[in-house]
């Protein structure tokens, strides 16, 4: 069961006003979005964190200026509705946004105005599990008002007077930068000593961090085995290697199909097969070190063949949990697009 957005927000939010309202700090927001374990080179594990505990107390990286564009009133804190807007942005599939953008770009000049952007974001939020039932960012006990699609980021795109236009390319680049920022923050967390690399064990931890709890223990057993392997002790993973694996998640549907099809046909998935699928199907080159770590975790019977079902289950859960998209898929989005477009004036400006 996935936690409700209210529970996620309440769990990570650390700032409480005298009136009892709760807010996230920038660190809270990053911890809520990026699934991490304490880095193995820190003393956090020895300081009493339980096995399987994902919350390391503090994400080991600097606050992100990009994240703070979602801070609508510039107070340095993230409200619940700002959090909902953030996870909505993270969950936007580029294909869905492209369709909506082109439909609202009535004069086909590759630009939309502020109100058209709000309508698109209303559609995107309705396609997102966390945002679908929070059109105004309201929750019990929280004194917030105003539409979710307001504030810092809208001003960033459209200027203080709201009269600027947003180019399609600029928004797609912003989404790319947002996801790249998350990768940088996660890498910085595990690069505990600021060496520009992470240990093989930390890379393994980053992979299994989003695993379902019922499978997590056995995955952590395999990760822990790496501590006693001198060969893994010599391996350091660079940011480029880390980012390449993160990029693979962007092609997860086609990559999953490639692994499933080849596995069904040949019965085995070797390291070479895995690298070829990433390269030929997704255009991503994975180093031998990265593949060796993946196979150590997910070659369950140590026969040199990947247990792709376990790996894909972990990868799909991470992608699903980051944005909490609804289960109904594209048909739900298209239905919402039709209904919301007809009723946009009543959906957009409540609160």
Helix/strand layout:
Blueprint (H helix, E strand, L loop, with lengths): L4 H8 L2 E2 L5 E2 L2 H8 L46 H12 L2 H11 L6 E2 L1 H13 L25 H7 L7 E2 H23 L6 E3 H9 L4 H13 L4 H5 L1 E3 H10 L3 H15 L4 H12 L5 H11 L9 H16 L5 H14 L1 H5 L3
Would you summarize the structure shown here?
Helix content is 55%, strand content 4%. The C terminus is likely disordered.
Query: What coarse outline follows from CA principal-axis ratios?
Result: globular
- Coarse structural class: mainly alpha
Unreliable stretches (pLDDT < 50, length at least 5) are 45-57, 130-145, 324-351
Integer-rounded radius of gyration: 21 Å
| Gap from first CA to last CA | 30 Å
Strand order in the largest sheet: 1-2
Note the main sheet: 2 strands, antiparallel
Number of domains: 2
- Counting DSSP E segments of at least 2 residues, the number of strands comes to 6
Q: Determine the mean pLDDT.
A: 77
| SSE pattern, N- to C-terminal | HEEHHHEHHEHEHHHEHHHHHHH
- Count of individual helical segments: 17
Helix content percent band: 40-55%
| Fraction in beta strands | under 5%
Describe the structure.
The protein is mainly α and about 350 residues long. It has two domains: about 5-180 and about 325-350, no CATH class; about 195-325, no CATH class. About 55% of the residues lie in helices and about 5% in strands. The model is unreliable at about 45-55, about 130-145 and about 325-350 (pLDDT under 50). The chain is built from 17 helices and six strands. Helix 4 (about 95-105) runs antiparallel to helix 5 (about 115-125). It has a two-stranded antiparallel sheet. It has a two-stranded antiparallel sheet with strand order 3-4.
């Amino acid at each position: 069961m996935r936690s409700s957005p209210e529970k996620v927000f309440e769990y990570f939010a650390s700032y409480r006003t005298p009136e009892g309202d709760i807010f996230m700090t920038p660190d809270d927001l990053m911890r809520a979005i990026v699934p991490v374990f304490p880095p193995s080179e820190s003393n956090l594990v020895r300081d009493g964190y339980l096995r399987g505990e994902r919350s390391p107390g503090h994400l080991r990286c600097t606050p992100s200026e990009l994240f703070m564009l979602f801070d609508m009133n510039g107070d340095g804190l993230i409200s619940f509705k700002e959090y909902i807007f953030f996870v909505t942005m993270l969950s936007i599939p580029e294909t869905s946004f492209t369709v909506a953008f082109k439909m609202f770009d009535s004069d086909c000049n590759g630009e939309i105005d502020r109100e058209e952007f709000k309508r698109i974001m209303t559609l995107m939020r309705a396609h997102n599990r966390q945002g679908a039932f929070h059109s105004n960012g309201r929750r019990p006990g929280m004194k917030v008002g105003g539409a979710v699609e307001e504030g810092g980021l809208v001003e960033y795109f459209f200027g203080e007077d709201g009269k600027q236009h947003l180019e399609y390319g600029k928004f797609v680049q912003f989404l790319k930068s947002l996801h790249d920022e998350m990768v940088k923050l996660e890498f910085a967390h595990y690069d505990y000593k600021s060496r520009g690399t992470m240990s093989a064990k930390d890379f393994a931890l980053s992979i299994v961090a989003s695993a379902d709890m019922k499978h997590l223990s056995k995955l952590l057993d395999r990760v822990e085995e790496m501590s006693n392997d001198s060969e893994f002790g010599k391996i350091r993973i660079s940011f480029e290697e880390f980012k390449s694996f993160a990029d693979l998640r962007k092609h997860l549907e086609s990559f999953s199909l490639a692994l499933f099809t080849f596995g069904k046909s040949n019965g085995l998935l070797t390291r070479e097969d895995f690298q070829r699928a990433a390269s030929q199907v997704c255009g991503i080159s994975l180093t031998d070190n990265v593949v060796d770590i993946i196979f150590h975790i997910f070659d369950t019977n140590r026969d040199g063949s990947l247990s792709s079902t376990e790996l894909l289950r972990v990868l799909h859960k991470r992608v699903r949990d980051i944005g909490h998209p609804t289960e109904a898929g594209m048909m739900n989005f298209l239905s919402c697009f039709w209904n919301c477009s007809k009723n946009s004036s009543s959906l957009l400006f409540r609160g």
